[in-house]
Write a structure and sequence with these properties.
73% helix; 292 residues; mainly alpha; MetI-like fold; 0% strand; disordered C terminus
């Protein structure tokens, strides 16, 4: 038995167990919360039967009939969509600039680009609040939807840059140089050669930005200014501090489904655009094995 356990050439025995334990630990609480969103009664701890009451059946407290819940869901979707539209193009351009920039200040620029990733979100939220309420040039942007959009874009750009730069480094400069040898201008090489190759990374980064933005709590909370700018994470946090209804679980379930749908759609598009690359790898490996 000891030899079977300590055999360095055997198949992994404990890593799958640890992986499955982690999955169970992280997924089971979510599934329990989803289950009680279909509970017949107001209880969030005792199961009394299946019902869609808290989604559209209840005339007062269901997600469909509660203006506060519908408004929070609409605000979350609006912030996430606008964040994707603004942060993704800026992040792509910033990634291209940082990947191709080789001069004085490039190192500092790369550090500043990563700074939002390592800054605690509570610090960023407080800093943005002080920026929009205390510094005179920025007080024209009061707290609310505009401030929330700027806050989401600020911390989302770094994720786009990291993903797109990784794709840039894996592609290399060979395709651009080949296009230049064939007479393509830098603009044509960028639009006709490099951008199609970057499409999988752009789609993946857009999906991640959407998922991060729609689930954000700290920045949305600090930059909100009333019920009209309340998002779903804020509603869930406020409800859990009192006596939450299953409608809170219902709107949380809707958020989980929307987030999963965005990530799955991004992954599907990524697989579609990288299908030719995956088909070419076995052939390339075969030629390499033959020494060709």
């Amino acid at each position: 038995m000891r030899g079977w356990i300590t055999n360095p050439w055997g198949r992994p025995r404990f890593l799958p167990v640890i992986a499955w334990l982690y999955l169970v630990w992280s997924i089971v609480p979510v599934l329990i919360a989803v289950q009680f969103s279909f509970n017949t009664t107001r209880s969030t701890s005792v199961w009394h039967g299946f019902s869609t009451r808290w989604y559209w059946g209840d005339p007062v407290y269901s997600v469909w009939n509660n203006p506060g819940l519908r408004g929070a869901l609409s605000q979350s979707l609006k912030l996430a969509a606008i964040d994707v539209v603004i942060a993704t193009p800026i992040g792509v351009m910033l990634a291209l600039g940082l990947a191709r920039w080789r001069g004085r200040g490039s190192g500092a620029s790369n550090f500043l680009m990563l700074f939002p990733l390592v800054t605690p979100e509570i610090v960023m939220g407080v800093s943005l609040l002080l920026l929009f309420t205390q510094l005179r040039p920025f007080t024209a942007i009061s707290t609310g939807t505009a401030a929330q959009i700027l806050g989401h874009v600020t911390f989302s750009i770094s994720f786009v840059v990291v993903i797109v730069r990784g794709r840039l480094f894996s592609i290399g400069r060979e395709y651009e140089e080949a296009a230049a040898d064939l007479g393509a201008s830098p603009t044509v090489a960028l639009l006709r050669v490099l951008m199609p190759l970057l499409t999988p990374a752009i789609v993946a980064s857009a999906a991640i930005v959407f998922a991060i933005s729609i689930d954000d709590f700290v920045i949305s909370q600090w930059l909100s200014n009333g019920p009209n700018t309340t998002t779903v994470p804020i509603v869930i946090y406020s409800a859990t501090r009192g006596q939450p209804l299953p409608s809170t679980n219902a709107i949380a379930t809707i958020m989980v489904l929307i987030t999963l749908a965005s990530v799955v759609a991004g992954f599907a598009v990524y697989r579609l655009f990288t299908r030719d690359e995956r088909a070419q790898r076995p052939a390339a490996q075969g030629f390499a094995d033959l020494g060709l």
